[in-house]
Design brief:
- By secondary structure, this protein is α/β, with parallel strands linked by helices.
- The chain is built from eleven helices and twelve strands.
- Strand 5, helix 4 and strand 6 form a beta-alpha-beta unit.
- The chain is globular and about 45 Å long.
């Protein structure tokens, strides 16, 4: 069985790491280069860097900052934000990214998923999906959760799976920053529906939440931000705990 992955996420705004609740009320969380180095040393399995206002502001991801983070870590590195065409992917891979995460641009131009998979390989293409549950429906959102679309989470995830995405990064906007646990029911449905790994995002507040998303949500990886940034959970201790709970992780 593949080891479950622990992935800290750096949400970047104006060159600084920030963290909010339900995608709003952002507060500063530190220097991304320092945080990236710390997580790499602590045994994180991967690092995700999201330039969270790039799409909304209509600009490209900060390449220089990506280079600086990449130079200070030795774990797989995923970068997202403002990626609209193959030249953006090329630029970020050359800056040190191992994978790219696309969200708004994939919804606006689904062929971009096929193109990235064809030119760079499926393993490079992570499709991030920000979705909010209203009643029984999960609707996908654009531009960092600002614009609702008519796409359903499960249909869209299935489509990008078929188009050649290597992974899905699903963030529940209802759970983001609230620290009440991940959206395990939706995650479990995704896991059963798809043939590619699913990364859980949104809701981590304690070590038990990580255990539950692996056991109940069937997630392949768990992404978190504030619990790591503000020292509430240390990655080595989290991995020891998960190991004792029978979850296969790399120690």
């Amino acid at each position: 069985m593949l080891a479950k992955r622990i992935i800290p996420c750096l949400d970047i705004k104006d060159g600084q790491t920030v963290k909010g609740t339900n995608f709003v009320n952002l507060r500063q969380a530190g220097d991304p280069v320092e945080l990236g180095r710390t997580y790499s040393e602590q045994g994180a399995d991967e690092l995700v860097f999201l330039d969270i206002t790039a799409s909304h502001e209509g600009r490209k991801t900060f390449t220089d900052l990506v280079k600086r983070v990449a130079a200070n870590i030795n774990i797989p590195f995923t970068v997202g934000g403002g990626i609209n065409e193959l030249s953006d992917v090329d630029r970020l891979l050359n800056a040190g990214a191992d994978k790219v995460s696309i969200n708004s641009s994939a919804i606006r131009n689904p062929d971009l998923v096929d193109e990235i998979a064809k030119h760079f390989g499926s393993q490079v293409c992570v499709v991030a999906i920000d979705a909010k549950q209203t009643g029984t429906d999960w609707k996908c959102y654009l531009n960092g959760g600002r614009i609702e679309t008519d796409k359903c989470l499960f249909d869209w995830a299935k489509e990008v799976n078929n188009r050649g995405a290597g992974e899905i990064l699903f963030t529940s906007m209802n759970h983001d920053g609230v620290k009440n646990g991940y959206a395990n029911e939706a995650l479990s449905t995704l896991a059963d529906l798809l043939t590619i790994p699913v990364i859980a995002s949104g809701g981590a507040g304690c070590m038990e939440h990580f255990r539950d998303t692996f056991a109940e949500g069937k997630a392949d990886a768990a992404l978190a931000a504030s619990v790591f940034h503000f020292g509430e959970i240390k990655i080595p201790e989290l991995k020891q705990y998960l190991c004792k709970q029978g979850i296969n992780v790399r120690l």
